[in-house]
Design goal:
The structure holds 2 protein chains of 2 kinds. By secondary structure, chain A is mainly α. Chain A is built from 3 helices and no strands. Chain B has a single domain, classed as MetI-like fold, CATH 1.10.3720.10. The chains are: A mainly alpha, B mainly alpha.
Chain lengths: 90, 289
């Protein structure tokens, strides 16, 4: 594993992603979701909304890093709120 | 009567694919993420730098220019290849030996490896020994793809159009063959013009294959490397240096692994976004039908 040059933040990031994926799979098995339409202009499943949320979060983080000097944790908090809104009403 | 068995055993059959993808894509991608937050001098000397490389990459004007060139290039070749491919497909014979001969002739450019395509056009465009270069000189055009950026662009675009229009043409040809004859009979009864047949029968039936063709061509042209590298080497200056070539220069030429990893992640996110937009469009189009 040393050749992969692991760091603590990246390890936590991937553990987070893995936990989200396992959690979503369990949630899907326990209560299968139905495609629905929220404020997004297309019908989405839970997994679609997660993907849209993760992808947009990546771009929000990039925008934060590029155009502000603010702490990256602020972007993470903003993305967490965005993810909740998207998963609930998207 | 047979009853249908439902369980999750089929997932075990997917395991080999998952393992291969893990080794060929997921683990390398994770490594790139790890590199992107570190300054790496050698495998044992590395320092955590946080988001520094991302900031540098996002504000790098050379990369902005390469990204702009990349979008201009991808949209230019799509704007040429899609209409041209449809025209070629409409003109191809539908029956008899002519159809087979046309299919083989049209498919030939697709069979040629990328680096050979670059070499072919490198020779083809030379004024002293190449047919295209000599022809341009003959008609009095001062054409030199090695020193003039406009000529280099013209050659790179022409090369891609020559190489990949056949793909669009073949996809459209198969789409056209799938239209039942009754549609044309109905059009003849209504005395529809050739344009009306194309606009109201052929084009709507081609929509799906065209979206797939455009997706393939966009992705492929967005990641283009070999042909321009062989033909112009990214020059003159950096006029034909596209994203992947900038990335290779940074990663292998300068051995800046950290910034190159950050750059490839941004590149990956852009491709992922465009793929998702195309995929969603295709799926929604099929749902509407």
């Amino acid at each position: 594993m040393a050749w992969m040059s692991w760091t603590l933040p990246t390890a936590l990031f991937f553990i987070g992603i893995a936990v989200i994926l396992v959690g979503m799979t369990t949630w899907q098995i326990v209560s299968p979701c139905v495609e629905r339409r929220g404020f997004l202009p297309l019908a989405t499943t839970r997994g679609d909304r997660l993907f849209i949320g993760l992808l947009s979060s990546a771009f929000i983080h990039l925008g934060f890093v590029a155009f502000t000097d603010a702490n990256i944790a602020m972007a993470t908090v903003l993305c967490a709120i965005w993810m909740i809104i998207l998963m609930r009403w998207g | 009567m047979q009853t249908k068995v439902e369980n999750n055993k089929a997932w075990f059959l997917v395991m080999p694919v998952f393992l291969i993808v893990a080794f060929s894509a997921i683990i390398p991608l994770m490594t790139v993420v790890n590199y992107s937050v570190q300054d790496i001098f050698d495998p044992y000397t590395r320092y955590f730098v946080g988001t520094e490389w991302f900031k540098q990459v996002m504000l790098d004007s050379r990369l902005h220019e390469a990204l702009l060139r990349q979008f201009i290039y991808s949209f230019t070749i799509l704007a040429i290849e899609v209409p041209l491919g449809i025209c070629v497909a409409l003109m191809m014979p539908t029956k008899g030996r002519g159809a087979s001969v046309a299919l083989i002739l049209v498919a030939i450019p697709l069979l040629i490896p990328w680096n050979v395509v670059g070499t072919i056009w490198q020779i083809f465009g030379r004024a002293d020994i190449g047919l295209f270069g000599a022809f341009m000189s003959y008609i009095g055009v001062d054409y030199n793809y090695a020193s003039n950026p406009a000529d280099a662009w013209l050659t790179v675009v022409l090369m891609d159009v020559w190489h990949w229009t056949p793909l669009i043409a073949l996809l459209c040809y198969s789409g056209l063959r799938a239209i039942p004859e009754v549609y044309y009979q109905a059009a003849r009864i209504d005395q529809a013009s050739r344009w009306a047949v194309f606009r109201h029968i052929q084009l709507p039936k081609l929509a799906n294959v065209l979206v797939i063709g455009m997706l393939l061509r966009f992705m492929d042209s967005f990641m283009i490397y070999t042909e321009p590298f062989v033909l112009t080497g990214g020059g003159p200056g950096s006029s034909t240096t596209f994203l992947s070539q900038s990335l290779v220069q940074q990663a292998i030429g300068q051995f800046d692994l950290g910034p190159a990893a950050a750059f490839s992640l941004v590149y990956f996110l852009i491709i992922l976004l465009v793929c998702w937009v195309f995929y969603t469009t295709i799926m929604n189009m099929q749902k509407d039908k």
